Amino acid sequence: MTVTGHPGPEAGSASLTVGQVAAAAGVTANAVRFYERYGVITAHRNSGNARRFTVDAICRIRLALAAQRVGLTLKESADILAGIPPLSRDLGQWLAAGEELVRAGRARVDQLQATVNELATMDFLQDTRPHR
Description:
The protein is mainly α. The chain is built from 5 helices and 3 strands; from the N terminus they run βααββααα.
């Protein structure tokens, strides 16, 4: 989500361009815009109406990328990261968000493992209903 109008105090530190965030996070500029659209990161507009991001956008994107690899959605990542204000130096908040992403990722892996185990037994192919 891009904030326009009268930005908050963190906007003064929102100095990274889309391209800079993309390069540092290892994604394309389009991916940066995608993460913004889904609320993983937030931009402010400068006087020329160009998007500017705080440096923590890079960490947010990297965390969301890692979470995606275990099957978490961008919404799930955005919801978890939403509790961390821009430019937060509170390591506890970042650690808590990381731990929540790990918990959610492990839950997803457990779901996938249960599905794989079901497939491996092929029990689901047996018709347990009585025949008439």
